[in-house]
Amino acid sequence: MTQLQVAIDLLTTEDAIALATKVAPYVDIIELGTPLIKSEGLSAITAMKDAFPDKLVFADFKTADAGELEADMAFKAGADYVTILGSTGDSTIAGAVKAAKAHGKAVVVDTIGVQDRVKRAQEVIKLGAAFVELHAGLDEQAEAGYSIQVLIDEATRAGVPVSIAGGVNLDSIQAVKESGAVVAVAGGAIYGTKDPAAAAKALKEALN
Prior knowledge:
Elements lengths: L2 E6 L4 H11 L5 E4 L1 H7 L1 H10 L4 E8 L3 H11 L3 E5 L4 H14 L2 E5 L6 H10 L4 E5 L2 H4 L7 H10 L3 E4 L7 H6 L4 E4 L1 H4 L4 H12 L1
Parallel strand pairs: 1-2, 1-8, 2-3, 3-4, 4-5, 5-6, 6-7, 7-8
Helix pairs in contact: 1-3, 4-5, 6-8
């Protein structure tokens, strides 16, 4: 079954927890976006895990170096998942996986900026990543002609556990599920609406 992940790109812990409180009944994974972590630091992770101990907390570090050290920081702060960039070296990913094993947690490799996402996904699963985020970032989504269908097609071809992030909404979520993705990541489709709880509920029902 495909899990639902909310990506929270707000800039204060207070706002992030307020949003999470509304959507928590309908999501499996709460992601603290990179801007939020850069704005508030590790304390945002701890605050979120303390507020929602029954949810998986996803720290979107997008680590490019010092994989073991940064992953260790995230896990000590309360994260269940931490992201390492797929464009970085194998040793950085392997280091993060080492930290994850020590904590009983998991590494997700983010393919933002990777040219051949499918190939890299297959490589990093062998390094011990729990799953790979096929990710079109906000800037890529804003480019003319962008379509989430690219990620959906890649997920179908990858043959390894992946999540899809980059324009998941009610129109696309069925195709995301059918691609075999283990996680669907929704950001703006939840926090950009007048009623985030209703939006999250609708997405969860579509997945079920």
